[in-house]
Amino acid sequence: MERTLTVEQAAYQAFLDAYPEFAATSAVDDLRASDYARLDASRQVYLDYTGGGLAAESQIREHADQLCEHVFGNPHSGSLSSDATTRLVEQTRRAVLAHFNAPPEYTAVFTLNATAALRLVGEAYPFAPGGRYLLTFDNHNSVNGIREFAGARGARVDYAPLTVPDLRIDRPRLSALFAGVDPARANLFAFPAQSNFSGVKHPLELVDEAQAKGWDVLLDAAAFVPTGRLDLSAVRPDYVCVSFYKMFGYPTGVGCLLVRDAALSKLRRPWFAGGTVNFATVQGRKHILAPGEAGFEDGTVNYLSIPAVEIGLRHLEAIGIDTIQTRVRCLTGWLLKELLALRHGNNRPMVRVYGPATTTMRGGAITLNFYDPEGHLLDYRRVEELATAQRISLRTGCFCNPGAGETAEGLTEDDMLAAASEGTDMTLPRFRQIIQHRGGKSAGAIRASIGLASNFSDVYRFLTFAAELRDQARLTVGEVSFDIESCRVIRDGS
Ligand SMILES: Cc1ncc(COP(=O)(O)O)c(C=O)c1O
Predict the structure, then answer these.
(1) Distance between CA atoms of 58 and 35, rounded to whole angstroms?
(2) How many A from CA of 115 to the centre of ligand 1?
């Protein structure tokens, strides 16, 4: 007897026909049932993997067993309990370096998160007059914030722009900014391996290109490494930051700075703390910083959580980063195509996606806004509310990446200065109002991000949710329209 397929099953079949390579990732579907069962048990669709990964139950159990079976004390002492901790922390450090295939010249410094790793670099990099800090418009605020250290110490700060609508780095403009640098000075170039705004994967060849021209390179790998292979023997940025919860969900509160020996020796720490000195005197007012990572790990490291990083890395490696990447690419490709094909009854597009429309050099974050049949922007806060009612977790706002958002929305320096002139009263709702009045631009968007435990059903449910916005009367924020086909803002009534 012929079996009748449900609409979702038929869509899945069509998806498999379009992406036959997805079938080879079926082990993750099994894991989803065993290790991430809480998602389906609670009927939730989790689409915020760029915000944070999800932990497998087995990771948590293994860590809990470890904690229950052993006595762990504060590390770096000679006692049994201390020695047990030190051994596990150092074993994890080696596992981190091995995961990224780091040559011996790399050191792994445990931090609280990627932001803390970035701050370590920012506050200790020898920025000085004549030196430079160059960064791409597409950057997380934790990278943008380093400009405060650079500027305060007299270094010149420049931003390399993005192209529209793809939101990729404008290579000719970047090359021009690379040129003319004085290699005798301290020059730092920072960019993300993958955008947390658009999902764009920026070319890792930029590392070599910048280094050859006299720049040190800070690679923000936080959004890239959960689904991408970073091989530090192939590309060798001077500084790399990651947050482990983004890779495998658990533990939170542990990140890492991977740093080359030569780059580490350039850093000048602005202070010392417990755990970072080999010697310190009160009367002599002198201190001698400990060599290597110890000089950068302030106070007591998160010694109970750090061993869970090794467990997480093993989990990731057992699945295989290539399998995860393939899976995320297939699901992203399908969702992108389907979202872009959504049309209102009057045949106008329903969705504007920021960044590339295909999976070429892009990861699993899709940032978008919805529009009504007249081209009015639907308020993303309302869209989020509606998604939440359907148990779909998205992220909305600007994702701490103002430069990519400003480029995507066509916001100008004048727009941003007008907003900044509001001083401390400035809030996101107030900012949205100001921007609306300055030509109806939108501030903020919706991000759906796909990751390790995502399956077809997740993206299918999101698409079904999106399709329900067809012919919706406006869920408005203002009196302005956006012509989604020409990507132009048009004032109401014009
Ligand atoms: C690209 C990128 N860099 C840096 C960060 C900061 O990570 P954390 O908040 O874990 O410090 C994030 C977090 O979203 C990110 O996506």
Answers:
(1) 6
(2) 6
Q: Which residues of the chain have pLDDT under 50?
A: 476-480, 482, 487-494
Looking at ligand 1, which atom is closest to the CA of residue 246?
10
* Pairing relationship of beta strands 277-281 and 255-260 according to DSSP bridges: unpaired
Residue 145 is predicted with a pLDDT of: 98
Pocket of ligand 1 (CB under 6 A): 50, 113-115, 140, 142, 192, 196, 220, 222-223, 243
- Which of 48, 224, 246 has most ligand 1 atoms within 8 Å of its beta carbon, as the pocket-test mutant? 246
Task: Supply the residues annotated as catalytic.
Answer: 400
Distance between Cα 264 and ligand 1 center (Å)? 22
CB 110 within 8 A of CB 85: no
- The string of DSSP codes covering 330-374 is HHHHHHHHHHHH-B-TTS-B-EEEES-SSSTTB-SEEEEEEB-TT
Percent of the chain with pLDDT over 90: 86
pTM passes above 0.90: yes
**pLDDT score recorded for residue 490:** 46
Cβ atoms within 10 Å, residue 469? 18
Q: How far is CA 492 from CA 296, 406, 410, in A?
A: 55, 22, 18
